Request: fold
Amino acid sequence: MAKVLLGVTMSLDGFIAGPNDEVELLHDWLFGGEHVFYRGGSSFRLDAGDVEILEEAFWMTGAGVIGRRTYDLAEEPWGDDPPFHVPCFVVTHRANEKVVKGETSFSFVTDGVESAIEEAKAAAGDKHVGIMGASITQQCINAGLLDELQIHIAPIILGKGIRLFENMDTDLIKLEKTKVIDSPRVTHIRYQVIR
Amino acid sequence: MAKVLLGVTMSLDGFIAGPNDEVELLHDWLFGGEHVFYRGGSSFRLDAGDVEILEEAFWMTGAGVIGRRTYDLAEEPWGDDPPFHVPCFVVTHRANEKVVKGETSFSFVTDGVESAIEEAKAAAGDKHVGIMGASITQQCINAGLLDELQIHIAPIILGKGIRLFENMDTDLIKLEKTKVIDSPRVTHIRYQVIR
Reply:
């Protein structure tokens, strides 16, 4: 059964973007290194140890679930061939025709995050569902849908911006730490949710 | 010159205590292990890899700065011989006679955190100043006084409680990651503030 995975870069103080949605400083590990890595129309510049992390993230993911706001913000930078190359499901109140860009499709789901996760699981085959964005993450945590977290901790204190963990309406969640990989520009920590 | 160091255990979602100041689940790495470690009237139970971390933390610290709220909450659990064994400075609006307990003293500073840090630096000799508590941390960050952070990330999402990083009134702060030590119950990451 497909698991629901969150992979996200977070500042030490818990932000995944600045107050105006800026991510450049957080994403230095994706674009500041020496090793060029292409995926669809996107190119990344990674440190050697991070190449495997990004490859594995793409390889594990068979479908995506994202919020409408993330989609609207990222549509332009992602360009004509976004890097996902899997079916993605956009949780929104506004119905929209399915959008296909390169090898990535975006279907618009208007009946909530649980429905989007269900569709994504069905589409993921023997791989997993990746989720993106603070709001979708919070909705998945509150609905008990999240299975694994891979947090890339960037060495920065932003002070303000979009907080990953807030609006939480859940009891505390115990995690099992399954992997820590330290890298020059970032620290990767992977956790499983204990149920 | 003495540096100002923050050493604190934080949940993955950024809390250093629960909504009623509970710290038990966060501090599993201090009390859930096999190796007994005594310091003053306190005893800790650590995993093998964490013994050195705690020893080093005590060894590096020549003076402490804490908030009045932390002091009031911790006075009872710390008992007659708190584990610090250094001069501590309590930032407060209420003047108070100096309190000596075992090898630890508490002086009450009523003219603000900068003054308390200055007194602590003078008292720290060739060691460093350790700070404790969310409010003191935020005040030190906002005043540009913090030099190093050692964050012990506990594998738990608390959802609510006392957040370490908020009320920030500073530009973004770039950090240099200097050390990562992974341990069964916690991940230790040490950063220097880049100025």
Notes: The longest helix of chain B spans residues 48-60. The longest strand of chain B covers residues 173-183. The mean pLDDT of chain B is 96.
